[in-house]
Amino acid sequence: GLDRPMFTAEHYQRFTGEEVALVLRMAVQNRRKWQGIIKAVDGEMITVTVEGKDEVFALSNIQKANLVPHF
C-alpha cells in the first residue's frame, strides 16, 4: 500500500523526494516522531528535510518509517 513500511537503505533511496513519517528508537532533539521529505541516503544515514531544515538520522535509529500518502 501507499503507507508501506520501509526497512532498507534501498527503500529510502527509491523514495527520495517523497514524504516520510519516522519513529525513532532514541529521541533526536527530544523528538522521536519526525515527518519530512527524504533528501538523500548516504550509507547508513538518511537526510530528511523537516520544516525547511535538513535533519540527518541513522537508519539503525529508525524504529518505523512509512511513506505519507498524498491524494
From TrEMBL:
* Name listed for the protein in its UniProt record: Ribosome maturation factor RimP
Query: Where would one find the signal peptide in this protein?
Result: none
* GO BP term, example: translation
Q: Where are the transmembrane segments?
A: none
Superkingdom, taxonomy of origin: Bacteria
Concerning Pfam families, the annotation shows: DUF150_C
Give every Ribosome maturation factor RimP C-terminal domain span. Answer: 6-71
Q: Name one GO cellular component term.
A: cytosol
Q: Which organism is it from?
A: Klebsiella variicola
Report the PANTHER family cross-referenced here.
Answer: RIBOSOME MATURATION FACTOR RIMP (PTHR33867)
